Amino acid sequence: MVGQALPSAVPHAPARAATRRRRFTPARAGIYVFLFGAALFFLLPLYVMLVTSLKSMDEIRAGSILALPLELTFEPWRQAWSEVCTGAACEGIRGGFWNSVAITLPSTVLPILVGAINGYALSFWRPRGANILFGILLAGAFIPVQVMIYPLVRLLAGAGIFGSLPAIVLVHLIFGMPVMTLLFRNYYASLPQELFHAARIDGGGFWRIFLHVVLPLSTPIVIVAAIIQVTGVWNDYILGLVFAGRDNLPMTVQLNNVINTTTGTRLYNVNMAATILTALVPLALYFFSGRWFVRGIAAGAVKG
What percent of the chain has pLDDT over 90? Predict the structure, then answer.
């Protein structure tokens, strides 16, 4: 009798478990409320910036900060891009945009390349003093940027490149290398060691194994590193202000000049449009690459 009852009871067990999982409990309601509140908290400033940038100044003065624009206008965006004064020149922030592009591209590629090589050497080849070197690089990731500004100014001035594009790229390379090395070292440490040993047995050397075995497996962590580096370099203000020079000022420096101007009427719609234009690249990067970022983290970016 007992043997006959068991088969009829077993098929209903998954259904009861699924019912318990789908039940709407107070704890689940609290989680949804918290997530909705957090999303609202972070999206509300972006909403205010967006709707303000699409209004005229008369409508901004007369209406609510949260109200939708009654008459949609893109004139503030045009002014922010090509007409607003960023100092002595009134040519908009488009010049700063291309300066930021020129700074960000090499300041992303070079630290990722150096970090990948360092991480590969520290995780697979383990030269003498590798642990000490890794500890020094790890400590460098926690040194405040402000502490290193004056020594770097004197060093780059002595080298004759202070206030130039190579100077700001070199500074970003220096400050980005510890974090990039940490990411790649931990990722490579999670790869099967058998692949490396098999490549050594087949006669592969340092560069051949790196280029043909390790690097093709690095796509997830390269995407993670690129997102981190692009965001950090693009949003940087203090390093660009000090090291880039007057002809290479990034978009963030020009945005600060636009927002903090004390002459004439403060154009809130133009300021908001300029702010969104400055933040557009990191926002688009996270929007289109967010799932790849999560995959890279899950694939071993924080292992080790």
Answer: 37
